[in-house]
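Hey, I was hoping to borrow your eyes for a little while. No rush at all, and the record is pasted right below:
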Amino acid sequence: MSLVTDILRNNRTFAVVGVSQDPAKYGHEIFETLLAKGYTAIPVNPKYDQVDGHPCYPSLEALPEKPDVVVAVVPPAVTEKTVETAARLGVQTVWMPPGAWSDRAVELCEQAGMTEVHDVCLVFALRSLKE
């Protein structure tokens, strides 16, 4: 079983950092696809109070529960800070889609002993997952 499949089968709660209220944006598509596939998706973006009726949190630190996976849908420099925060909070897995990851972010995950996926589209992975 691939790492991607393993993560999707064994984790239920995903925090989507950089979620958007705009249905045309990638962060919104990730959020909606996770929900449609039966996952708990927690929106994280300081710009919004809610996304599609779900409470939106300003930061990872503000979440009511620790997510299984943090998905960073933000620029690489913000992803690096997100990884540092996730490591501090004890999150085990970080997913960095195309455009969001950097070599430094990958290194930070490795240094913290976290599982990481980078440069893989989460929406495509979810749609490809066999039930």
Q: What stands out?
A: The chain has one domain: 3-128. Residues 9 and 129 are 9 Å apart (CA to CA). The radius of gyration is 13 Å. The beta strands are 13-17, 40-44, 50-51, 54-55, 69-72, 93-96, 115-118.
